[in-house]
Write a structure and sequence with these properties.
Shape: elongated
Number of domains: 3
Distance between the termini: 105 Å
Radius of gyration: 34 Å
Helix content: 40-55%
Length: 486
C-alpha cells in the first residue's frame, strides 16, 4: 500500500535529487531544524611557530592579569579601582570620576586598534590574545594532560561509565574549577584590595558583592572555556559577525592555496605527485583536526575562523614530512592567492590607504592621551553656593556670600593650598585662606567672600576662585562662581 502510494507520487510528481517531489498544487511539507545539535570538537595538539607565539601571549597576558594586583606602589596596591572611594589607582596616577575623559580615550584607542589590526591581518586579536582564546587554550592543555591526546579523549567520551572515566573527568573538572575560581578571585582583586580579599576569603567573611563576582566570573570562565568554547566565537561574539565590514581582498588572512594544493589526494612519500596528477594537499585532514572551531580552511574564508594559524603549523609539518615546500596554508590575501602576487607585491597592497588612515588616527589619539596626562593638573576644585545662606550683610556694612569649596588632591603627597578670589573690586576671602588636604583625598571647606556695599549693582556677578599649592605654584586651578547682591 505504502509502496504503491510512493510509486504513484513518483509518477505524478517531479524528482528532485533522486526524491519524488509533490505534484503541482500540493503543499510541500519539509521539516527544518531551527538549531543545529553541537558536535563536540576534539582539537589535536599542534606545535610550531604560531603555536609558540600563541603560548607566549598566553603566558604574557596571564602573568600580567594574575600578577598585577600583587604589585605594591607607594605602600598601596599598584593597580586598584576602588569604586567605594571613587578612586582609581594606576601606578603613580590617581584618577577620579571627573577623569572620565581618559577612559573615553582608552576606549577609542581600543576600538581603533581593533580596526587597524583587523584591516591589516584579520582576526589576530581573536587568535592570539582574546580572553576566550587564552582560557580555552589553558583548559585544553589541562584536558590533554589529564585525559590524553585527541584519540584518547574521543575513546574516553565514548566509553561506558566506570571508575577510570569518573576519576579522569573529576580530576579535569576540579582543575578547571580551581583555575576559574582563582580567575574570579583575581578579577575582584582589582576592585577590592587583594590582600584584604585573601583574608576575607580565608575567614569566609567576604561581602555579598565580592562573593557574587568571584563566583560569577569564575562560572563564566569555567563555562566559556570548558564547555562552550568555539560556540562563544561562532554564535555569541559580535566581532565574528561584523568583522567582514573591516575585511577586504587585501587583508592578511589564513588561506589555503588551491592552485597549489588541488586536486588533493593521498599518496606515499616516494610517489611522484605530478605523475599522479595530484596537488600538494595529501588530504590528511590535519588542518581540520587541529582547528579549535572545527572548520576546514580549504573551503575558503569563513566567519568561524579565528585566525589562530594552528592549521598553518599542522600543514607545514605534513609538508616537511612529504618533502614539499611549506606554505600550502599560510597568511596571505585573497588577491595574492587568486592573482599570484609575489611576497613584495602582497606586502605593498597590504600596506594600503585604509591601514595608514587607521594608524594615523590611532597615533594621534595615543599622542593626545599622553599629552593630556602630561599636562594634567593634580588638583580639582569645585565651588558650590551655600543654599542655606545666601547674601547677608556683616560688620562694617560689607556684603558676604557663603560657599562650599571642594578641593581634591589627586597626588599621593599632602598639599597646603592658598585660596584667592577675583572679579569684583574689594573682593576678599573672609574665611581661612590656607587649607591642607591629605594625599589622594577630597575635602570640603566653608568659604566666605566679601565685598564693600555699593561697589556693584544688584544682581549676580561673575567671580573667579583660585586655589594654588604653596609648595608648587604650577599646581593651581581656577573655578568660576557667582556673587549675589540684593
Amino acid at each position: 500500500m505504502a509502496e504503491a502510494a510512493a510509486a504513484q507520487s513518483g509518477q505524478n510528481g517531479v524528482k528532485v535529487n533522486g526524491a519524488a517531489a509533490p505534484p503541482p498544487g500540493e503543499a510541500d511539507e519539509t521539516e527544518v531544524a531551527l538549531y543545529e545539535v553541537r558536535k563536540k570538537i576534539y582539537p589535536r595538539a599542534v606545535h610550531g611557530w604560531f603555536a609558540a607565539l600563541r603560548w607566549a601571549l598566553v603566558w604574557l597576558t596571564q602573568i600580567i592579569f594574575y600578577g598585577l594586583p600583587w604589585l605594591v606602589w607607594n605602600d598601596r596596591q599598584a593597580v586598584l579601582f576602588d569604586l567605594a572611594a571613587r578612586k582609581f589607582y594606576i601606578f603613580s596616577l590617581v584618577f577620579w570620576p571627573q577623569d572620565f575623559i581618559y577612559l573615553t580615550l582608552l576606549l577609542v584607542i581600543a576600538a581603533l586598534s581593533l580596526f587597524l589590526f583587523t584591516a591589516l591581518a584579520g582576526r589576530v586579536w581573536c587568535g592570539y590574545a582574546c580572553p576566550q582564546t587564552v582560557y580555552t587554550e589553558i583548559f585544553l592543555w589541562v584536558e590533554q594532560k589529564i585525559e590524553g591526546g585527541r584519540l584518547e579523549r574521543m575513546r574516553l567520551d565514548q566509553a561506558a561509565a566506570g571508575p577510570r572515566k569518573l576519576a579522569l573527568k573529576t580530576a579535569k573538572h576540579a582543575v578547571w574549577i580551581a583555575i576559574a575560581l582563582w580567575t574570579g578571585f583575581t578579577f575582584v582583586g582589582y576592585f577590592t584590595p587583594i590582600r584584604e580579599l585573601v583574608n576575607a576569603v580565608g575567614s569566609f567573611s567576604t561581602g555579598p558583592w565580592e562573593t557574587f563576582w568571584i563566583l560569577f566570573y569564575g562560572f563564566a570562565t569555567y563555562g566559556n572555556a570548558g564547555w562552550m568554547r568555539e560556540q562563544v566565537c561562532k554564535y555569541m561574539c559580535p566581532y565574528a559577525r561584523f568583522q567582514g565590514v573591516m575585511f577586504d581582498r587585501d587583508t592578511l588572512i589564513v588561506t589555503y592555496d588551491p592552485g597549489r594544493g588541488e586536486p588533493r589526494g593521498g599518496r606515499s612519500r616516494k610517489a611522484d605527485r605530478r605523475a599522479l596528477g595530484l596537488g600538494d594537499c595529501v588530504n590528511c585532514d590535519m588542518c581540520v583536526q587541529v582547528c579549535p572551531t572545527g572548520i576546514d580552511i580549504r573551503n575558503g574564508l569563513q566567519y568561524e575562523c579565528i585566525g589562530c594559524a594552528a592549521c598553518i603549523d599542522a600543514c607545514d609539518q605534513v609538508m616537511d614530512r612529504m618533502g614539499y615546500p611549506k606554505g600550502l596554508i599560510r597568511y596571505s590575501t585573497e588577491n595574492a592567492i587568486e592573482k599570484g602576487f609575489t611576497a613584495d607585491q602582497m606586502k605593498r597592497r597590504v600596506l594600503r590607504t585604509r591601514v595608514f588612515v587607521y594608524a594615523g588616527i590611532l597615533l594621534a589619539v595615543i599622542g593626545a592621551l599622553f599629552v593630556a596626562l602630561y599636562v594634567r593638573v593634580p588638583l580639582k576644585v569645585e565651588v558650590l553656593a551655600d543654599r542655606g545662606s545666601l547674601m547677608r550683610e556683616v560688620e562694617g556694612g560689607r556684603l558676604e556670600n557663603v560657599y562650599r569649596l571642594r578641593i581634591s588632591n589627586t597626588q599621593e603627597v599632602p598639599h597646603r593650598y592658598r585660596i584667592g578670589a577675583s572679579g569684583i573690586e574689594t573682593l576678599t576671602v573672609a574665611s581661612e585662606n590656607e587649607v591642607e588636604v591629605p594625599p589622594a583625598t577630597t575635602r570640603v571647606f566653608p568659604m566666605r567672600l566679601r565685598i564693600d556695599r555699593g561697589v556693584v549693582p544688584k544682581g549676580s556677578h561673575r567671580i573667579e576662585v583660585e586655589v594654588r599649592a604653596r609648595e608648587d605654584a604650577k599646581i593651581a586651578a581656577r573655578e568660576r562662581a557667582v556673587f549675589l547682591v540684593r
